[in-house]
Amino acid sequence: MALFRVFANRLFVQPQIFAPLSVSSRNLTSDTTDLKGLMAKKIIEHQKAVKKFREVYGSKVIGEITVDQIYGGMRGMKSLVTETSHLDPEEGIRFRDLTIPDCREQLPKAAGGEEPLPEGLFWLLMTGDVPTAEQVKHLSKQWAEMADLPSHVVTMLNNFPSNLHPMSQFSAAITACNTESKFAKAYSEGVSKTLYWELTFDDAMSLIAKLPPIAATIYRNLYRDGSSIGAIDVNKDWSHNFTSMLGYQEPQFTELMRLYLTIHSDHEGGNVSAHTTHLVGSALSDPYLSFAAGMNGLAGPLHGLANQEVLVWLTKLQKELGNDVTEEQLKEFVWKTLKSGQVIPGYGHAVLRKTDPRYVAQREFALKHLPQDSMFKLVSSIYKVVPPVLLELGKVKNPWPNVDAHSGVLLQYYGMTEMQFYTVLFGVSRALGVMASLVWDRGLGLPLERPKSMTTDGLHKLVGAV
Hints:
The protein is mainly α. Among the domains are: 2-99, no CATH class; 306-413, CATH 1.10.230.10. The protein has 21 helices and two strands. It has helices spanning 2-11, 35-57, 67-71, 100-106, 118-127, 133-145, 151-158, 166-176, 182-189, 196-223, 238-246, 251-263, 272-282, 287-298, 306-321, 327-339, 357-369, 374-393, 404-413, 422-443, 456-463; strands at residues 85-88, 92-95. A two-stranded antiparallel ribbon has the order 1-2. The radius of gyration is 22 Å and the shape is globular. The chain starts with a helix and ends with a helix. 46% of the residues are buried.
């Protein structure tokens, strides 16, 4: 639990008072494939640890809030608990304290594959444990067995108009799946709060299982003449079934999807999709409704559409300058973009102050599998040119590329050129992180979220402004 570990270091918490759930304290000998049973033990242990921590340090001040932060989108305010990951400005994302390179090395892989299986990342986010190959295989089978969509959702998807954006279809179908919610049914009948997390777990598992067929049906209807997604194979992993349903048979594309779904899964709790899912879930809306709300946030151009904007900018660059572009020409084009009042898409990040490790992971994949691709070469050249220009500009805190600067280029290389669908892929991945967090929200009994808002006049009085 990286967030509490940071606090613990600052507050000099003694290990015996607070022992957070983390990979450093994981039970390496556990070989159970019963994820829910394992979670029951983890949650009880962690509830006790959090209770002790709050008893000792509950009144401790951990920061301050400025007027600029209130007007500036609450940037940097320490006001959420997110157990699954922590975003460090210098190191980048850590999933339960494991970096992306750690995950690529330690998490189980498909037979003959080199990239981590997203199922393993989900197990890690849920438990803090690096799973065994058998645990991941069991999780793959569970999701395959739970993937069938309700008939009314299939009917709805097949009757959407072709001009309805893929993300609108995705969100609507997820919302409609709440007919399957065990949480909603049990709550309506009256259920103990102690069982909230178990019902949330059941819904989270079912929801994650159903996302690939929902996404693939949308893709086939819009871009493949409504052809069938085919049967789900219980012997295939989650990503392999997904790419098969989409209609892609290239093993390298499946490997890319395993990497993509892993690295896009979680980015701590303050981003729009994660925070929205958490916020709506705090009202005890079921996981389907909560996740659908998060996906509506992801659909915004300042969040999930960024890789699409990168490709639009790259296409414009190629159209104007051609394929054989010198670094000097690139530099002139970058300055032209900036002087027109636009930003360089794919560069900068609200928290990170270095090259996004997710960008690096994708770059390493490209260097291995598509080093001669013209678009990849262009992205590599831009990587050399843009940061010095942004530093020279002097107004950018982070001049380095983020995950979106690379992801669309890889998808295009393997033939997925339908840019409007990219955010749906992002959404399928993001479910792993936000659903793991939602289970922990209910496990810890986190309350309805209701921050205090202020008027400008109220802030004037608060700070003593004349």
